[in-house]
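Sample 1 of the test manifest.
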Amino acid sequence: MTLTQNPPARVAPAAPHRPRAGGLGRNWLGYLFISPALVLFLVFIGGPFVVAIGLSLFRWDMLTPPEFVGADNFRLLFEDPTLLQAFGNTFVFALASVVTHVVGALLLALAANRVAGRVVSYFVRTAVFFPFIISWAAVALLWQYMLDPAFGLVNHYIERLGLTPPDWFLDPSWALPAIIGIDFWHTLGFTFIIMLAGLQTVPQQLVEAARTDGANRRQVFWNVTVPMMSPTLFFATVITFIGAFQIFDPVQIITSGGPDDATTTLVMYLYEQGFQAFQIGYASTVAIVVFVVIMLVTLLQFWASRKWVYQQ
Amino acid sequence: MTDTLTGTPPRDDAAAPAPPRPVCTRRTDRRWTRSKVALLVLGIVLGLLTIFPLLWMVSGSFKTAAEVNSATLLPSAPTLDNYRYVFTEVPFLRYMLNSFFISATITVLALWFHSMAAYALARLKFRGRDTIFLLIFSTLLVSLPVILIPTFVVVRALGLVDSYAGLIVPAIFNAFGIFLLRQFYVSLPAELEEAALVDGASYWRIYRSVILPLSKPILSALAVFFFLANWNAFVWPLTITSDPDLRVVQLGIATFQQQYVGDWNYVLAAATVAALPTLLIFFFFQRQIVESIKNAGFK
């Protein structure tokens, strides 16, 4: 919201220079400049959005003509145990993601900032960021190899320690944690870069002033670094949640939601409903639910941020 | 394995303090305290642990079928057979060319359309501008999988299923790209444009000769970002194509794995081939990649 307030203020002072006709010409020109992107947006993002709302009122298998069912699909939501399970899985995944990514990335960024020696520092930064640029398809294959129950390296070493390793993706209680772990490995680099950038915004004078006043490391961290970085922490929390709540690629490639729906996330579920069960209407309803939840949680985060984010 | 490797660095660093710079200044942090060495070791261990799975993948791709299921670190008899197999038994080259063509086309069109739109949103005055921006901005909340089904319905209605156009056109628009570019254009000094206008330049000319050259750094960052995102894309190609001739490389390795379950030496070679261009891009353009992520939050 605040973002949109900037441009008019900037453009406005220039306006008096121009005659009225110019304004009209600019109007026309603006549409011309924006039209290619706007058309794509309307057809492939905005349009589908409206279509989803429409479809949620129908029963449709993409072959026979759609049948209007009113709010039936929404009523179905409350009687669907798999949806409930998917909700649970998605929340567990999103919560685990937000906590591990934000905390892990912050600690890593602090450490990387302090690591001595340019070469080592560069190595750590690059290594942590590296997995993020590899595609989910390759990452999924790689970790299926690493976690293979019979031949995988991970289980090999767990066995060496004298423990009984789990079957990971075949075990309902280990499949979701395994996906959480892989996602941590793959996506941490993204949050890490954000944290590194955020650390640059902490004024060094403030840190030094606190130290000369006798604050120890921990006090500096809690009373200077964290408050000064709170906008970054907030941004990272919001963006990690939004991404994690829509997790799909690794689930689809590795487990397709199994075993026993232990890894069925909301988006995985709506994909199954749409493209395997051909319940287009119901799948669209689930999509709307996902969107509404994301919007609500994001708004909640913005509301809560007023209490803990330090405004400069 | 990591233990033996990380055993060396501390030794190197123990040698480092030998030429001690005078520690009389306030910069006492130049000294090698124990916690510093610990941090260094920790950093190296963490870094190695993080990239180890990738090294393991590459190592496995050079192993024989018999060896790939063992825990030996390096292939005892490195072989290129897996790669040969991947490229001859499966049209992997075709998959890669498909991916390249699609990603490159999307990147070029996206940069062009998005910079024009962002320029209009930042600089031109027209009715409904703020509404349009808000609409676009609000879609930053959703990713493709959520609207996958209605998008598929729309694309099917347009008759674009199983075509290059179906792979390319719906993937061009990116709210993040518009948002980033608009933020950049808003921050450019208005005087530049004013001067050009006084000289009688048209807006199209200003966009071409003033705005585009100025936005080269951010456009190149976005170019890398778009290309990587589309090279790595999986969900949309999976949804919109079934024709093997249109298969992209990420889909290629996923289907390959389904066909060759357990033949990890082939699968790892395929995964390495699919990841290789990304790694090359990373090493050549890492500054741009990092910038585009940083800009996401702080422009």
